[in-house]
Structure formats: structure tokens, C-alpha cells
Design a protein that fits this description.
The protein is α+β, with helices and mostly antiparallel strands. The protein has six helices and seven strands; from the N terminus they run ααβαββαββαββα. β6 and β7 form a beta hairpin. It is globular and about 70 Å long. The structure holds adenosine-5'-diphosphate and magnesium ion.
Amino acid sequence: LQEQLRKSDRLNVIGELAAGIAHEIRNPMTALKGFIQLLEPTIKAEHAMYYDVITSELARIDSIINEFLILAKPQEIRFQENDIRQIMREIVDLLSAQAVLYNVQFHTLYEEQLPYVYCEPNQLKKVFINIIKNAIEVMPNGGKITIAINSIKDQLIQISIRDQGTGIPKDKIKKLGEPFYTTKEKGTGLGLMVSYRIIEEHNGSIEVESEEGIGTLFRIKLPLNHLVNS
Ligand code: ADP
Ligand code: MG
């Protein structure tokens, strides 16, 4: 139980700190954005490019702050026995509207008789949302996302999320989960960092297999017996 409390505390402290900083940055940002906008009519033509850089970089800070506030939002952390399939069903429902917009179909394969997993459901939801959103975003022309959940040997539950997107170059796979690593114009590079951290707190692991032009597979493994393994 002590171990369990320590982990919950750590998740909460990181979350609160990040959310606190994000919040503090937000106020001066509002002032900056407002006054920069007021200056626009006075900008000389030869300085128009500087003005554009300033406004687009401000917009970028804005999206990082917003993502941080969403990802790091402190929540009650409660590890308990949960049905992973139920957690995943909720997330698939939540993302189905966005999937339709992208012409993406979900295929889900959930093993029946799956044992419960000792986990923090709200944290795991963040992980599933991040990984599935990434999968949707790399398929601008639509495609299929296959989500499978099954138990494997050594008391593990495996959650695999496979897309038919752009894939990831071999030398970039190790960059995944690094803070601010993004290849998207409007990306923040925070989603996977947070996801990796959460899975680590569950004593689990994330593996990535990818082939450029074919797609990517994220494989999450969670121990069934979290306490014994921690
Ligand atoms: P963001 O989505 O804001 O870019 P993430 O941490 O979620 O940040 O992802 C970091 C980067 O990892 C992405 O910009 C992308 O380059 C790569 N990536 C993540 N998931 C996938 C995927 N399913 N297919 C291809 N690339 C991916
Ligand atoms: Mg992302």
C-alpha cells in the first residue's frame, strides 16, 4: 500500500506542478497576444515577417500550454482492479466522431474472459486517447485502426493499436516520448511523453513497430499483478 501511495503522490505532484506552471504562463501570454495584435497596424512592411514569426510562435506556446493543462490536469489518482476493455470502449466512443471526420474506421478485437488489471483508469484513458489520436492524425486519407486486447504469457495484458498511416522512420523511433518531439505543424510533442510516463507508473512497457508507408503498431503491456511486480 505504501508503494501504491508513493506512486499516486508522484503522479499527482508532477501533474500539479505542470498544470501550475502552465497556468502561470497563460496570463502573461494573454497580455502579449493582446498587445502584439494592437501593434499590427504600425508594423512596417519590412518587418512584416518578424511580426508573423512572433504571432505564430505565440500561437505555438498557446497550444503547448493548453495541451499541458489537459494532460497534466490533477485528478484523483486511484489504482484499482479494472476491465481494460471497458476503458477502451469509452475511448473508442469518445473518438468516433473525430474518426468519422478523417474517414477512419475502428476495428476492435477484445479477448473474452480477460482478467482485470490493477490500474488507474483516468490515466490509462489519457494514454489510449493520445495513441489513438496520433493514429488518426497520420491517416489524412482515411484507413483502419485495429485495436486488440488480449492476455499473454507471464501475467501480462497486451493492448495493441495498429494504424495504416505514414509510419515512422527507423532512426526516429527512439525519439518518441522525448518532450517536444513532434513532426506536426501544430503538434506539441507532449502526448507520448505523458503516455510513456503513465505506463511506467503501471510497471508496464510500450513497444513501437513501424514501417514507412505501411503503418505503425503501438504495443502496451501491463502486468496483471502490479503490486507484486512493483
Ligand atoms: P504530437 O502528436 O503533438 O506531435 P506526440 O508525443 O503525440 O506529439 O507524438 C510525437 C511524434 O511521434 C509525432 O509528431 C509523430 O511524428 C510521431 N508519431 C506518434 N504516433 C505516430 C503514429 N501512429 N504514426 C506515425 N508517427 C507517429
Ligand atoms: Mg499526439
